[in-house]
User: What shape does this take?
Amino acid sequence: MRLSVNPNDKTPIYRQLYDQIAAEVLSGLLKPGEPLPPIRTVSRELGVSMITVRSAWDALERDGFLVTRTGSGCFVAPISEARRQSKVNEKLLGSIDETISAAKSLGISEDELCQMIAERYHSQR
Assistant: This one.
């Protein structure tokens, strides 16, 4: 697992970490039972506070992406296919909602937006 943070990003660092790990769990790159690196190690490697990393790990555990085993560390939690698909849809729909709002505020029609999305989608294959 390769984590990175951008201190200039408007997204809080704990959320950047959360998003990266959640995406890897949802995509299957991180498998159930796989250990996460210790908080202290991540903190040192990224040059961020241990509290920041702990906040990300706690949020991931709260949302069912991680489990903590006392004395052993944090591990990727098992996630059902239905829950995985629900989380993927939730994330994607949030991005779609933001895109639609931006398009409407810029006067872009539904047809224009669909065309733009289709072009982008096909150019990234």
